[in-house]
Backbone:
């Protein structure tokens, strides 16, 4: 599948696909799931080992983006939106 075909199926730009492939962008959880479905692979296999590249910035606000529509899980238990919001508040309280 070409970058353009993947981009069209995922409703993203070809340049965004290039950025994902070059590890210059990090997809949302929703997009990661969508790409896994399109490519017929486990979305986890699309993440570099260790979950990120050494030295790469990981933005927690992107992880907790409730607008992504994805589900959040911890230790085989689904986390509700309310719990995600509480987790984000705890993190903010610790770091602010």
Residues:
């Amino acid at each position: 599948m070409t970058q353009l075909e993947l981009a069209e199926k995922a409703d993203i730009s070809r340049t965004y696909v290039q950025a994902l492939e070059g590890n210059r962008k990090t997809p949302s959880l929703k997009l990661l799931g969508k790409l896994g479905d399109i490519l017929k692979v486990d979305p986890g296999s699309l993440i570099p080992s260790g979950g990120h590249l050494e030295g790469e910035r990981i933005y927690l606000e992107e992880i907790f983006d409730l607008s992504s529509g994805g589900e959040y899980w911890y230790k085989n238990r689904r986390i509700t939106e309310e719990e995600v919001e509480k987790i984000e508040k705890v993190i903010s309280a610790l770091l602010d």
Remarks:
- The chain has five helices and two strands.
- The longest helix spans residues 81-95.
